[in-house]
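So, can you check?
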Amino acid sequence: MPRNFGKGGKKRKKGKRLEDQTKRELAFKEEEQEYGQILKTLGGGRMEVYCFDGKKRTAHIRGKMMRREWMHIGDVVLLSLRGFEEDKADIIMKYTEEEVRKLKSFKEIPENVKLESGAGEESDGEDNIEFVEDDKEEEKVNKAVSYTHLRAHETRHDLVCRLLLEKKKKKKKK
């Protein structure tokens, strides 16, 4: 058998690459570029992005970023606009939460941009759902901000429970 004189394998090499990206210089937009926020993933490396110039565009993740940086709904990205296709763009860079705060302080992006704190992280207990008690006959409307998000990740068991609760509410109203 051959003797191994190396200093590690695949994992060690990957770890070296990640060290370089910890602190990077803040990149501002240039000509033919725009800031945007991801609205929806379409598959095949494509995203629906709301650009801060007021347009929705279909953006394609460039090949170098495809498997190295994961994109989630709510991430702020830098887009390269295509001169020949108005409604399409290419994602050049994904900003971290710290970089987004800096861009807001430099007034590069609007102040009302909400940061979605990590799609893969554990939640802090706040699901943006408000429960209202019906003491009298007053009908109070409660709006669940993340209702569509909840329905997207609904299992069969959750679906049955939700349908039974809706049926029960309809009977109470009659």
